[in-house]
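Below is the data:
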Amino acid sequence: TIERSLRRLEFYHFIHRRVYSTGPKSKRRIITLQRWDSAYKLLVREGKIKAISDKEIIFITPYLLDKFKKSDPK
């Protein structure tokens, strides 16, 4: 679905979305496309990718939905 695709793009910091109010009962969503250099810095800082340089990425953390993640055994 579109919502799932947007969540995946947001997870990898390719887009930034926010909601703003246009009236008492209506809202709009703004989706901003992020620049690669700013997304790259965030991904490296969060540990979602491991890279040698801007062009050589070694490892990408896969995106997993919360309902498919394994729960911790207690």
In short: The longest helix spans residues 36-46.
